[in-house]
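Q: Two folds, back to back.
A: First:
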Amino acid sequence: MAGDLPDYYFRIRDNGATAFRLDHENRNRRIEMEEIATINLRNGSIKPHGDRVLTAEDLARITEWIAARSDLLARREIDDIHRAVDQMNLTAQWVQTRATDAALDEVTDPLLLAMHDLRAALVRRKADRLTRDKADQGQC
């Protein structure tokens, strides 16, 4: 089992993680987790734990984890949007086929406001992209 364990472990927390170095080859045959740093994904900061000085290997592994975690979170965010599109389609089907008047009274205004807000944001961003693309092509 010890041979299969990584040398570092990252405990996920809000906006980052706590990094641990694992020692699984000690004389007690126990897995020791030594806290080495706190990572903030929002601003990219890496703060060594206590008076610790991080080694080049520590920094390399933490930087690799930050890149992999950021990529994973970006992929999850896009997947969530695709799920929202699916949910909107299912909601339209529900409204058309199964919704009661009482259920519609409960959800119509919040849905309409959310859809109006989303539409406005999408139209504004698309217009910005089109304007920027024309400017980049020298057509503005």
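A: Second:
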Amino acid sequence: MITAVDTNILLDVFGADRAFGQASKDLLRRCIAEGQLVACEVIWAEAGALFPSTSAAREAMQQLGVEFSPMSLETALEAARAWKDYRRGGGPKNRVAADFLIGAHALHQADRLLTRDQGFYRTYFKPLAILDPSRR
């Protein structure tokens, strides 16, 4: 089982979020026990910004067991399709393309997504299996 992890989960864990930190940590452990934990380049860039250096970011992600999973061309084009549908449907520009890249990556290069942002992903990536620590 391959689980893609979203930035909000990593923020919960690395920042020891009071509301979701423990639930996110528990689901991360479960995902690791069930298989592989991956993150695309968007997640690595967003989460990496939390750390004082790139080596600190790399070490923290490795300690969690998060593997770097680069996006394929097909995945990027799926993100483009979803972004286009979103904008055609009147979606405001406050939702950035990075969110569509994350969803497409999870859909095409993993078996599920660990995130607290399920409403968005359920709308634009309907077949995507989602684990949400806020729903426990």
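Q: And?
A: The chain is about 55% helix and 10% strand.
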